[in-house]
Amino acid sequence: MFRKGRSKVEVKTPAQIDLMRAAGRVVAATLDTLRAEIRPGMTSLELDRIAEDSIRSAGAVPSFKGYHGFTGSICVSVNEEVVHGIPSQSTEFRDGDLVSIDCGAILDGWHGDSAITVAIGGGTEAERVAMSVCEEAMWRGIAEMRPGKRLGDIGHAIETYIHSQGDFGNVEEFGGHGIGTQMHMEPHVLNHGKAGKGIKLREGMCLAIEPMVTMGTEVVVQLDDGWTVVTQDGAKSTHFEHSVAITADGPRVLTARAENRQRISELGFVDSGW
């Protein structure tokens, strides 16, 4: 299952990728539920409880809960919070908030991991543009996930697109990762890089691709809680993520939601198996 070499990169069989898609469906359904349920006046802890109920009712287990002591089933990052926001009864959503929701689930020993950003109340035009840039940067990175390409091609595609769209921050301290029998595995997937550099991508590798785009500086700091990462200048942030398998015919998005179907078709990716 592991690639030989200095770093162990898990390589999956088609049957194992199907199992990962099953875990990914749980994550996708949970994110759909959370998008529908989130509203002003709700706390992030209430949203977390809805997420845990959704995951467990599908026969899965939340990946995040208990992970190195993390207390939530999801990460809920609001406005200037970039990633790893801890669900709390004291965090109450308000109209105008940008909320990034990162969700992971384990089903039959396989992990799915995905994130979306939701603008409560619809957001401003500038916020909607930032969200669109972040999500499209993710798709541009996923498009590089083909056998024979290099890991650096993914980060280069993400970085190049973000910088082409205006004065947005591309958070470099955090990035994507391998995924499979564990949530975080080799390799680390940077959201920046040089085309043609890094390990060669091969069929059966599965990676989580997750750009984080801010509406200001890309410089971030970690809060004293040991988890929450915020923008240094207080600018709002966006975050999108999908878990993806590399197949002989191209990328297969394992955490695809129904709303992604048209985009996946437009990009010529492998059918996710709806």
Descriptive overview:
The protein is of the alpha+beta class and 274 residues long. The chain has one domain (14-267): Creatine Amidinohydrolase (Alpha-Beta Complex). It has helices at residues 14-37, 44-57, 125-142, 151-164, 261-267, and strands spanning 61-62, 74-78, 81-83, 98-107, 110-119, 169-170, 176-178, 185-189, 206-209, 212-214, 220-222, 229-231, 237-239, 242-247, 250-253. Helix 1 (14-37) runs antiparallel to helix 2. The radius of gyration is 17 Å and the shape is globular. It starts with 13 loop residues before the first helix and ends in a 7-residue tail after the last helix. The model is unreliable at 1-6 (pLDDT under 50).
Biggest β-sheet description: 5 strands, antiparallel
Fourth-tier CATH superfamily name: Creatinase/methionine aminopeptidase superfamily
Q: Radius of gyration in whole Å, from Cα?
A: 17 Å
Average predicted local confidence, pLDDT: 96
Give the C-level CATH assignment.
Alpha Beta
User: Quick one: how many beta strands?
Assistant: 15
The total count of helices amounts to 5
- What is the structural class? alpha+beta
Give the end-to-end Cα distance, rounded to a whole number of Å.
26 Å
Number of domains: 1
Strand content: 15-25%
Strand order of the largest sheet: 8-7-9-14-15
Shape: globular
Q: Helix-strand pattern, N to C?
A: HHEEEEEHHEEEEEEEEEEH
Q: Return the CATH topology.
A: Creatine Amidinohydrolase
Query: What is the level-2 CATH architecture name?
Result: Alpha-Beta Complex
Helical residue percent?
Answer: 25-40%
Low-pLDDT sequence parts: 1-6
